Queue: 2 jobs
Job 1
Amino acid sequence: MNNRIMIVILCISILMLLSVGCQQEISEMEKMKKKYPGSFSFLIQNTFDIERIDAPVYLDIETVARKCQDFDGKAFIIYCNEKEVASQAIDFNNDGRNDQIVFVTDFKPYEEKRVAIQLSPDRRIKKEYPKRTQAEVSHKIGGSFILKKYEGGEFKNVQFVRVPAEHTDHDTYFRYEGPGWESDKVGYRFYLDWRNAIDIFGKKVSDMVLQDVGLDGFDSYHEMADWGMDIFSVGESMGIGSIGIWHDEKVYMVSDTDSIWCRIVANGPVHSQIETRYFGWTVNAEQYDLTSSLSITAGCRLTKHTVEITGNPENVCAGLAKHPKGKLIHSQSAKNTGWNYMSVFGQQSLTDDLLVTAIVYRNEDFLDFVEDELSYIILLNPKSGSLTYFFLAAWEQEPGGIQTRDEFRRYINAIMMKLNNPIQISF
């Protein structure tokens, strides 16, 4: 057999193998389409000259249902440009019915993608995706409060908790002192007691870690572990993005309340969310009811904080803890339209390395900048009792962490551009 014949046989063999591979791929795709028959498609577009990685896209299920008869959001698959993407449905209203669908996808500058939603006919098949976000609240069950400590019992994750009247700081009732939420970039927690301040878990891994934090009932997470540690000193400051009201040259945190309850709204692969309701928050003899919703998406450091408050307060404020090695940085001007930021940059972590904290706010909500001995504070206007802002932390020991001030400026400016130029959805 000469060389030419051998080459021809080899080429034919390769083509046959490729053909079999394609047939197998098509076969698997056809199987998936039988489980999740095509429902409808629409377009999404990156409207700006910037790359977006893990861009979250939210779809209102009522809108989807109008386009697709019998769609109820219980079992579906989403494809972007014929590539399956991780997604989930969320019951924001806690009424037993899903309200929104969320998925994440990457975009090139100005890229347009066709999204196809395929629905399972029996509405029972659920697709599992790698977990890239998490939200949890865990408290002890089986013990009792004795002299301002919760003695005995074991930690259990719950979907809902009404905070006991006996609960106070450092009583070991809550695992790591309150609820926690994380993405594959960073973790956060807040103290579900009179302090009500937000803290930071720096992560050296992209895995979900909070489920293993604080199981010893104490604060071992202040010591460096393989996954990372609590990297922020909050004390009596406003921590990162914590909420309050500024009155008579003083910040009033959400400390004096009649009752508090907290629930996990979502704990999914691409979106996790915690809602906390504070009843009878007293500030200077005035009382308010406050609903705080904290959410995070896959691949993102930002926490979105949505606030609803009764009683028409003069302002709602948010703050960042001061640090001797931290430098305050603002957007170029508070008069900029759209979104702006206030940040603290410097070696302010508990490991004495670079940590950036920031609050991202809408210019239309801005009232003023103030400060006290412990915090830099921004005053915001909750129009009709509603307000949304973001906060973030970036630690240099993260995988691919920010290392310089120039890197941070590029990163935060990209966030501003993305918020000011949202993904466009065309049904």
Job 2
Amino acid sequence: MNLPRPARRSWWLEEALAAEPGPPCPPLDRDTETDVVILGGGYTGMWTAHFLKERHPGTDVVLLERDICGGGPSGRNGGFCNGFWEELDVLVHALGPGGALETCRVAERSIGEIGRWCERHGVDAWYSRNGHMGVATSPAQDGLWHALVEEATRLRVEWLEELSTEEVRARCDSPVFRAGVFAPRAATLQPARLARGLRRVIAEQGVRIYERTAVRRFRQGPPAEAATERGRVRAAYGVLATGAWSSRMRAPVASRTTTIS
């Protein structure tokens, strides 16, 4: 049997890079000034850059990424595009019914918007709005979704459908699958293809992307200043889009960051 070689990166990212590597973005090698500097080349950083340029085309934006864009969690997640409805019970506890419903409704809009964005920009992210299914594979997992479904029913939210074992097996006949829950309005996609597509689009918009550029120090300003090994970026505004990496920064950033594992 010929087994595939171990992935050097996530399979998602390796597939996306093989399909469309895109032109390389150089590391920062000199001091520069800009309107907005963004730290992090994942979804948060690239969507921020995209919408800044879309709404204010004359804004000069610099994006700094220590690896390559999409090289972190944005290029290796599960590819589920589902809003926050599946966290409804948690959100109700944190925000109350009104706040939870508004959060979920706003997040749900992004599902369709992502699909339309991919179509508009020619990004083949394997977007499919055919829903997704969660299943139990052991007795310990049976019914873990009951509290969520009960909360959704109480708030008259039609998002989840409970499935029997037979209904699950009719969709995917795995011998380990038991009962489950189905979200028919959710979507799935290839996460790294979305990230790399975003990279292409923001480069076309004129965002200055510097990859392989680790930020050693960041000052919130004003002006904001990001110091790297070979250059500094001074900007009127700075955006931290580093996810859990932000917790490694010193105060005041670390004291305002929560990392959930």
